[in-house]
Design brief:
The protein is of the alpha+beta class and 154 residues long. It is 41% helix and 25% strand. The model has no long low-confidence stretch (mean pLDDT 85).
């Protein structure tokens, strides 16, 4: 019975979450302000919780390119963010990564595969305390937002 209740709580939260968590908000706002992407999902990371349905051990933002923006332009943008973050934080307690996430969409009989872009900020040492991970990720979010703001496509 406990698993059924947990599953229902997860679904309720999933379908009714409309607020952006405050700690990830600066990065979401910076990404949306570029005119290159439109974010639709984010997580500030939750390091003192264990959730059997989702992995909250990192901060992430999911986004689609705007209609007039090519995948090549998005890949240049992401490369800039990750490279700049890495150069600024060569011995950082946080790693910036990005990937395309492919997922089936549509009704069962007409399933298509679509993708979204995911930018992640991951604590390097998973053995660190939840408080240290929180502090490190909070700083990394602000640093990543500043990097996004300085990006100027050619």
């Amino acid at each position: 019975m406990q698993n059924q209740k947990s599953w229902q709580e997860f679904l309720d939260n999933l379908f009714y979450m409309t607020d952006i968590e405050p700690k990830i908000l600066p990065l979401v706002q910076a990404l949306n302000a570029t005119g290159l992407v439109s974010t639709f999902s984010s997580c500030e990371g939750h390091f003192d919780e264990i959730n059997m349905f989702t992995d909250h051990s990192k901060a992430d933002v999911r986004f689609d390119p705007e209609d007039n923006v090519s995948d090549y332009d998005i890949e240049k943008f992401i490369s800039y963010i990750i490279t700049r973050f890495s150069n600024l934080h060569s011995f950082s307690p946080v790693i910036a990564t990005a990937h395309k996430l492919y997922a089936p969409i549509g009704p069962e009989e007409n399933k298509e595969i679509d993708f979204v872009y995911v930018l992640q900020l991951i604590p390097f040492d998973q053995g660190d305390s939840p408080d240290k991970k929180r502090r490190d990720i909070d700083k990394a979010i602000l640093d990543a937002a500043a990097i996004v703001k300085e990006y100027h496509p050619a």
